[in-house]
Structures are given as C-alpha cells and as structure tokens.
Specification:
The chain has 664 residues and is α/β, with parallel strands linked by helices. Helix content is 57%, strand content 11%.
Length: 664
C-alpha cells in the first residue's frame, strides 16, 4: 500500500508502509524476456561477464589431463575417450544441470549459492526443523566459501596459462612468464578501485573475439583429421573407463577443469536474466569450446609431442603472438568475473549477518552490481600473487584447481533438490532421481580431486575452511552479543510508561537510536537518559533488518509506527543484495511529519568493548557455547569491522557514540 504523507497522530499503535524511491537504493532489475536489440546487447555483455572462466579452460585442460602423474598414455583410444568424456560433461553438467534446471531456481531474479540458500530458508522457517536448517546453512556457507578459493586460483591459472604462450612463440622468453603474469595480476587488482563501468563494455567484444578465435583454430585442426568427431559417441567414454578404471577416475580431476565457471552462469543470473545466458551458451560458447577441444585432440593424434602446449600449437606461427594477446585479455576478463563475484558474495554475507561490515564502494551510479570492497580485494590479490610465485605454472596450479569447483557443484545439487522437493512440489521419485544422477557425477569429480590435495588441492580447502570459520564465528558471536544486550533492555511499553510518569526534560530536535530489537528500549537510549537526564522532543527507534530475498519490494520497504510520548518505531527492510541508507530512510520519515532536518537530528550509536571472559558454557539458555579461541577471533573481527556511521551513510558530524564494556 502507499502511505499518506500526512503527519502521524501522537497516539501509539498506528503504522504505515512507505514506498521506496531511487535514493534508498533501488536496484536494476534484469529483464524477464528481452528481445531484439536489447537481447543482443545483454547477450554480448553476458558473454564477457559470465563465460570468462569456462571460456579460458582450453588453455590448460587437455594439457592437464595428460600430465604424467595421471599415467595416461598418448594413445588414440585415450584421446577419443577423453574427448568423449569432456563433451558429455559439458552437456550434462552445464547444458542440462545448470542451464536447463538450476537457472530456473531464482530468488526473485537472483542466483548463486547464497541466494539459493536464502530461497530455501524462507520455506524452512515455516518447517521449524532447526537441525535441518543448520545443516543447510552449513552447506550453503561452505559453497560460498569455496567460491573464494576459485576467486584466488582463477586469476592465477588463467593468466599463467595465457602468458605461457611465450614459451611457444619464443622459447627464450620463458623465464619472463612468471614476472609478466605477476605484473598483469597486480595491475588487475590495483585497477579494481576504479570499477569496471568504463571498460565493462569491452569485455563482451574481447570474449567474442576469443571464442571466435578458438573455434576457428579448432576447425582448422579438425579439417585435417575429421574422424576425431566420432569421439562424440559416449561409448568412447565408457571404453575409456573400462580400459583403465583407476587412471580414468583420477583423470576426472583434470576433466572437471572444463566446467570451471559453470557456477558463474547461475551466480550472474541477476545481472542479465536467464534468456541471454542460455542463448549465448547454446549457440556460441558450447560450440566454440567443443570445436577447440576436438581441434586439440586432432592435433595430438597427428603430433603427440604437441602435448607440451596443445592450445598454442594449434595456431599457425604467424598467429601465435596475436593469440597470446587475445588469450591474455580473455584471462583478465575471466579473472575480473571471479573478483567481482567475490565482492558480490561478500556483500550478501554482510547483509545476511555472516560477515562484519566492510567498506562497500559503488563504482557505478547506474548499476547496483558494480561494487568494490577494498579488504576483499587486498586478500584476493595477496593470495593470487602468492600462488603465482609458489606454483609458477598453470600445470602445477591445475593440481590446486577443481576441489572447490566440484565441492560447490555438489552443494548446489543438494540445495536445488530442497527447492524442487519442498517448493516446486516435485515427487520424491522425480526430485530424488535428479539428485542421485547429478550428485553422483559431482561427488565423482570431488573424490577424484581429493587425490590432488597433497599436490596443491589443500589450497582451496584451507581457504574455504578459513572463510567458513570466519562466517560461522561472526554469526554465532553476534547472536551471543545480541542475547547479552537484550538482557539489559526493557520492554518499550514499560519504558514509555516510566517516561510519562517521570516526565524528563525534553529538548528540541530529534534523536535516532539504532537498535536490532524493535520491541525493546535499546541500551544506548537507557544510558543516554541515565547520564544526560534529558530526551529529545522526538525519538526514533530505527531497526534495519535484512530479508532472505535479494531486494525488498518498494511497498514493503519502511514501516513507521507512532508509540506516543514523541517516540516513533521505524523498521526498514533490505534484501541481501541491497545497501541500507539511513539518509534515505530519514527522507521518508520527513514525509510523515517527523522532524528530520539535518541540523536537528542526532544519531546515537553504541560501541561495545568486548572482553572474552564469559565461561564457555553460560547458564543463560539463549547463549550458545563458543570456544575461547573463537571468542578472541570474534573480538578481533569486531575491532576491524567498518563502523555503522560509514556503512549506513550516517552524517559523521551528527553522531554520538556511547561506549559500554561487555564480558563476552
């Protein structure tokens, strides 16, 4: 409903919902059914953003599969078997699982593992099974944590794989591969603070040139040996496994590299909508990838020694240097997609309460998805550059790649099963068949990649474990802190009755107290009245809550309730893809007769000094146990969290902070 901007009466109990305007942070919505020129524009943009990671896989995938440690001989049968396996993995995992099914599981237009988790939790709230809910949350958080591992490895392996073309173009320059890769990646991360709004339009054209190039190179090689196309027969993949079961199973750790980036199709759905993503995949990306993989296979059948670098050896000598430039540009685009994805994932985690507040910089005035988070950028840059120096080649990095990808794919299959079973109403047989079929494939990839753990697969596992620990520690720590603070609050009705009875001095202006508990009088308000002995003429109790949806509809954004005694309860709801704006909220309060003139408003915030002295097991049933080391970790995270003043856009010269010491 649309609220009337007339002043609210002084009596309590009345409420109104206030629509949202552009200044509060309305986000760009992907079009449901674009067509014509708009569809072409979205498709080109999606080509640059969505398919960078999976599109650069031909740089290293075939080479990785025939790495000596896998023990696969360079035989005709093995080449055919590997090509058949690659073909059907692309079809089953990407075309069927993600493009045909997973893209349908959108959370009000948004995709990604955390968006899928939030979609499930909306339903599980009503189910009331706390244990199942906890398990689903843990799976979703691990899926998100795995993506940070991808965000570190993808820039390193993509750029190294591209720059290694120097070894083919001019073997004497091979010693410069690591320094050049290091410089490119360092510049890429340094550029992030400027945003991609200015150069984002180039990404689509770069990837268009890339896919066209790899397709043409593949066709040239296939023409020289067209019989290689018979590898499309899935029986070659079956014979591949029957001939040497163990080696072919371990080789799955390399085959999974051809679908790295498949999760990006789902995660980026909110930016483009499913139609452009499907169109580009079926009609351009998939054919280009298959042509290049089969072209590399045809080359290996003619020249087995080309396994040194089958991708670059596909190109004629005069095209190696141009291809090197195109490949490096494509690798940068692929890296950018993962970096931007890490920023978006962090924003979701902050809004859902799994991460401390961080500085979120919007680098575009028009696109809500264009954000930059300095803390995340520094962490990703440090991790990626260390991987370049530590591993040195794309082949060695291949040992670290795949664990996170396959783990995320398995988690997505499980979460999707929950959606189709409990929200879409699929039968147990239909939903179970989907889960068993795809989870079997996902787990086969994951188990095969576990063999890489001693050789580098530990990297994404450690990153995921570290991020998961941070997320769960912050969530549980905030819950404990909230329970402690609530013990110091009093019901708002009781507080207002006391105000009416005592009649403290009221001064001109408006005081805004931010609180996470709209039903009680916040501790900061109690301390203010206790020490200053006065209250403002108008007092706003402001609560900002995050819903498990990407964005909240305009008509459900803000609710204002007059409580009497000059007090107002204001609740503002935001989705996990939105950034709260206190100045925007105040603008709407002004339309309801509340004095929010900038020079008359003071914001009162609490600043807690945490002491991890609380026993591990508290007598308070609302406080869950937390190990002492995790308490210290939570204190450290709290000390480094971005202040509410900057995060919510509160004018700093109007803020009053009241500190309190809490034994945590």
């Amino acid at each position: 409903m649309t609220a009337n901007p007339a002043p609210l009466p002084a009596g309590g109990g009345q409420s109104s919902a206030v629509p949202e305007g552009e200044e509060i942070g309305a986000r760009h919505q992907a079009e449901a059914n674009p067509h014509g020129k708009r569809l072409l524009v979205l498709s080109l943009t999606a080509l640059g953003v969505v398919y960078g990671d999976i599109g650069t896989s031909p740089l290293y995938s075939i080479k990785e599969a025939f790495k000596p440690s896998y023990g696969l001989a360079m035989s005709v049968e093995n080449v055919y078997g590997l090509l058949s396996l690659i073909s059907w993995v692309l079809v089953l995992i990407v075309s069927v699982k993600y493009v045909a099914f997973i893209l349908r599981a959108d959370n009000r237009g948004e995709g990604g593992v955390l968006a899928l988790l939030a979609l499930i939790l909306q339903q599980r709230h009503r189910a009331g099974d706390a244990r199942e809910r906890g398990l689903l949350i843990a799976l979703g958080l691990f899926g998100g944590a795995f993506l940070y591992g991808d965000g570190v490895i993808t820039p390193a392996i993509s750029v190294l794989g591209a720059v290694e073309g120097l070894e083919i173009a001019s073997p004497g320059l091979s010693r410069f591969v690591i320094p050049i890769s290091f410089i490119i990646i360092a510049l890429l991360f340094a550029f992030q603070r400027h945003g991609t709004a200015r150069v984002g339009g180039l990404f689509g054209w770069i990837m268009l040139l890339w896919f066209a190039s790899i397709a043409v190179l593949g066709v040239r090689s296939i023409i020289a040996n067209p019989t290689v196309l018979s590898a499309l027969n899935p029986w070659h993949a079956v014979e591949f496994f029957l001939a040497h079961p163990w080696r072919s199973f371990i080789a799955l750790g390399a085959v999974v590299l051809v679908v790295t980036g498949g999760e990006a199709l789902y995660a980026d759905m909110g930016h483009f909508g499913p139609k452009p993503i499907r169109l580009v995949w079926y009609y351009f990306v998939l054919p280009s990838l298959l042509l290049n993989y089969f072209g590399q296979g045809a080359l290996l059948l003619r020249q087995p020694e080309a396994i040194a670098n089958p991708f670059y050896l596909l190109a004629p000598s005069w095209f190696v240097y141009p291809l090197l430039v195109i490949a490096t540009s494509a690798a940068v685009v692929a890296s950018q997609a993962l970096i931007s994805g890490a920023f978006s994932l962090t924003q979701q985690a902050i809004q859902l309460g799994y991460s401390p507040r961080m500085r979120i910089i919007h680098t575009s005035a028009h696109e809500a998805g264009q954000i930059y988070i300095p803390e995340v950028n520094k962490a990703l840059a440090a991790g990626t550059l260390l991987l370049v120096l530590g591993f040195g080649t794309a082949t060695r990095l291949g040992a670290a790649y795949g664990v996170a990808v396959s783990g995320t794919m398995a988690i997505t299959s499980i979460l999707f099963f929950m959606v189709v079973r409990h929200q879409w109403g699929w039968s147990k047989l239909k939903a179970g068949s989907f889960l068993v079929f795809f989870l079997t494939i996902d787990l086969a990839f994951f188990l095969a990649n576990l063999a890489k753990v001693p050789h580098g697969g530990w990297v994404p596992l450690c990153i995921a474990g570290f991020v998961f620990t941070l997320m769960t520690t912050w969530k549980r720590g905030r819950a404990i802190l909230r329970a402690i603070l609530q013990r110091g609050t009093v019901p708002i009705d009781m507080f207002l009755s006391d105000v009416e009875r005592r009649k403290p001095v009221r001064v001109k202006g408006t005081a805004v107290f931010m609180t996470s508990d709209p039903e009680g009088a916040p501790v900061v308000l109690l301390h203010h009245l206790k020490h200053n002995k006065v209250l403002h003429e108008q007092v706003i109790l402001l609560s900002i809550v995050t819903s498990e949806v990407p964005e909240v509809p305009p008509e459900e954004r803000i609710e204002i309730e007059a409580l009497g005694q000059g007090f107002f309860r204001v609740q503002a709801a935001y989705g996990f893809m939105e950034t709260p704006s206190v100045p925007g909220i105040m603008q709407y309060c002004a339309k309801h007769g509340i004095n929010v003139k900038k020079t008359d408003v003071s914001y009162y915030l609490g600043r807690e000094r945490l002491l991890p002295n609380l026993p591990r097991r508290s007598k308070d049933p609302d406080i869950a146990p937390l190990a002492r080391w995790r308490k210290k970790l939570f204190v450290l995270m709290s000390q480094n969290a971005r202040g509410a003043t900057e995060f919510f856009g509160i004018p700093p010269n109007r803020v009053v902070e009241l500190g309190t010491q809490i034994e945590f």
